[in-house]
Amino acid sequence: MNRASVIVVGAGVGGLSAAALLAAKGLDVQVLERGPQPGGKLRAVELGGRRLDAGPTVLTMRWVFDELFATVGASLADHLRLTPADVLARHAWGPGPRLDLHADLPSTLDAIGRFAGPAEAQRYAVFCRRAARIYAALEQPFLRDDRPSVPALLWRSARHGGWSGLRAMAGISPFARMWPELCRHFQDPRLRQLFGRYATYCGSSPYLAPATLMLVAHVEREGVWLVDGGMQRVATALAGLAQSRGAHLRCDADVAEILAERGRAVGVRLRSGERLMADAVLFNGDVAALASGALGEAAGRGLEAVARAWQRPIQRSLSALTWSAVADTSGFPLLRHNVFFSADYAAEFDDVCRQGRLPSGPTVYVCAQDRGAVDAASSVEPRRAQGLLVLVNAPALADRRPLTALEIDACEQQVFQRLGQAGLSLRPTVPMLRTTPDDFAQRFPGTGGALYGTASHGWRASFTRLGSKHPLPGLYLAGGSTHPGPGVPMAALSGRLAADRLLADLASTRSWHPMAMPGGTSMR
Questions:
Q1: Are 9 and 15 contacting, i.e. CB atoms less than 8 angstroms apart?
Q2: Which residues pair with 237 in a beta bridge?
Q3: Per residue, what are the HEC states of 243-307?
């Protein structure tokens, strides 16, 4: 068999997922990672002798990873220990009542009824049914499609469901914005805030995002999983899976340029000057880096629209200002996931998305990483200092106007004042580690600190993300800045789409035939 070779640039979730699938098909796969370990945004930091998640903290859509491992003849359960969270998150608005969302629908209905009244609980039940319909309408024709367009989405909906599929698509309000739809569902402004926050999972403003992002509510209710050992273990498991199928992982390998000859990607040049050649290159990084020319002129061609869009701050996704801490806590019973809402949500997103500045009244997310599934609902304080990640949304403008120390310090004061107003007292046992948008911009070149690619602002945004195939033949794309979008499971899906497209193109252009993958190709 003529064995094809592929270079994967970047060992994030998308790149590792693609590497595992391609290696299992018999390709010679080499993964190049500029950092010291795999993971990309799934990173951990050492603080006070503890290892803490400092990137994504929520794992949903477990079926994506079950399916991925099964496709290459493995079991996710053999590589990761996952525990479902009974309580999805705790939400607070100052010192007043708190609201917990539960994985169990009756428990959440009861909680909302006690928090906002029985009428709002019934409105939530209607909202859940709508979120489920949106997800059902989009999973097959959108999430699993390599490069969906509006005509293709309608065609696939009709193909899979006939007239009922087209009616389902029309019923999800694809052209409506999220915030007006939430106002129709809920009268209590606190519930509008709570469910509007799901837009930030895609790095977007709930005032500008499409209503279809309400599907995130269904995704969370289907299951939030706690990863034993932290979220970075997901990357470790994927890297191990890829290596077990024959892929080679090389860290501290900084790619400076994607090489092209005769109009086709043929390899890479490392910062050290070393050149590595391959039949195809798969880039697992932000497409803004390619569009800026950071990886060479050839890889930037055909991405002029991306480069133009990146000049408009409103089209960039959110960045973040974070604090990793090991601290004694008291006064507020933390769960694993906690949200402390601002008093003026509209002003917060106007600050970040339109004014390009840190919010004067931020919403604060706190991940208490020692709170597990068993003790998640317990009000008993842990006996040792807790590992925490504290996060607020921030503008992604590090390449245009870096935040000043004065701005960051003022925001930090607001953040911990808000936590104090809700009753939470933090006493760090070691100095906190602060990460700014500038830090994220250095870690992920070409992004300006944006953590989710382009923002999902307006209904067209979902159709303007690049698919898995770059305009340059032989170059493929995966990661949260490409279709189907940001988030750990979405990045894994992007890796699968890129691997499928690459395999199809190789099979059609050369005398090479893939081996059968063990484990079948079940879609669910």
A1: yes
A2: none
A3: HHCCCEEECCCCEEEEEEECCEEEEEEECCCCEEECCEEEEECCHHHHHCCCCCHHHHCCCHHHH
SS (HEC) of 17-79: HHHHHHHHCCCEEEEECCCCCCCCCCCEEEECCEEEECCCCCECCHHHHHHHHHHCCCCHHHC
Whether 519 has a pLDDT exceeding 50, the answer reads: no
Residue pair 212/181 in contact (Cβ under 8 Å)? The answer is: no
In words, the CATH class of domain 5-82+230-312+456-509 is alpha beta
User: What is the domain partition of the chain in residue ranges?
Assistant: 5-82+230-312+456-509, 104-222, 313-443
Tokens standing for residue 6: 């592929």
Whether the bond into 313 is cis, omega within 30 of 0:
no
Residue written as tokens 């498991």? 237
Strands (E) across 350-497 are located at 364-368, 386-394, 425-428, 433-435, 475-478
Residue 524: which pLDDT band, with cuts at 50, 70 and 90?
very low
pTM for this predicted structure = 0.92
